[in-house]
Fold this protein.
Amino acid sequence: MQRAGRRTQVDKITRLTMNEKKILIFLVDDDALFLKSLEIEFSDNTESDLKTFSTGELCLEKISENPDVVILDYHLDSIDKNAVNGLQTLDRIKDINPLIPVIMLSSQDKIEVAVNCMKHQAFDYIVKSETAFIRLQKAITTIFHYQKIEKALSWYMEKM
């Protein structure tokens, strides 16, 4: 059952990318193993373009490429204790372009952390787990669904 649901989400992301340009996803995580596993999952199961970064600073250097989605780790401090953390990176992304959707990832399963991320304008908060990729796919599909609705509403508003 879980496999069928996963296939459906993969199909949705694939259809989205096939109907238009490939979506550009930035993956930002200082956990090299988790970052590589996400990269493999997205590469094997979607038609998206991926760029991976181990620090928020590296991501911010390339944010002018206007990714369609940024998947961002909450902490980002295992490589360099003085590095900007995920929330600081999120804030800077939103300062540069508030329209870029950012999904926060963390190993912390705490409601306070999730609420804090949402206050900083994250689109979603996902706990790192064996189902994280499936949940990320659902969140990305939802992002594109919202964007489609917003475009339609804007079109209707212009016609009024």
Summary: The chain has six helices and five strands. The helical segments are 2-19, 32-45, 56-62, 86-96, 111-119, 132-159. Residues 2-159 form a domain with the Rossmann fold fold (CATH 3.40.50.2300).
